[in-house]
What we know:
This protein is α+β, with helices and mostly antiparallel strands and about 170 residues long. The protein folds into two domains: about 5-85, no CATH class; about 105-174, Orthogonal Bundle (Recoverin, domain 1). It has helices at about 45-55, 60-75, 75-95, 100-115, 125-130, 135-140, 140-145, 155-174; strands spanning about 5-10, 20-25, 35, 40, 125, 150. The strands form three sheets. Strands 1-2 form a two-stranded antiparallel sheet. Strand 3 and strand 4 (about 40) form a beta hairpin.
Amino acid sequence: MASQTPLLLPAVAAEGSPAPTATGGGAANAGQQEGAGGRRELSPEQRQAARERCQADPAQCRAESRARREQWCKDNAEKCREAKARAQQRREQCKADPGKCRAEAKAREEARFKRADTDGNGALSRAEAEKGMRALARHFDQIDANKDGQITREEIEAARKAREGARRGKANAG
């Protein structure tokens, strides 16, 4: 029997690359809004439900995501080829000059942090993180090392280094 949850399909974002959206009919679309380019976007409740399903079964979530991407590529062959070519070109650029790619990624992260920091105090409150940097908000308590209710750039970097160290430790242990 088919699930009542919405089917998430990639759509073409402004750059022409796949972006997750929801499509389908009936009750599955309840609470969805029309997004850019005619895409159906999930309500916050639907996003949370999808997030919980993925946390409960990450392997199934990855398989479904892969299947959606493959279907999108079948339906949008030319755009898919273009997106894959751009991704391959970017990988080659980053392989040739990894320092430049890291600097660009850091600049994008800094810009996102600055946009999310609506009061301009150099730190994100939980509310600011939930609005502007949802991935950080999900791990707010782990990142907020001094438990002051604010996340600073330094706390983010320390959490990142700790996470990378843990990953390296698992890779070396196995």
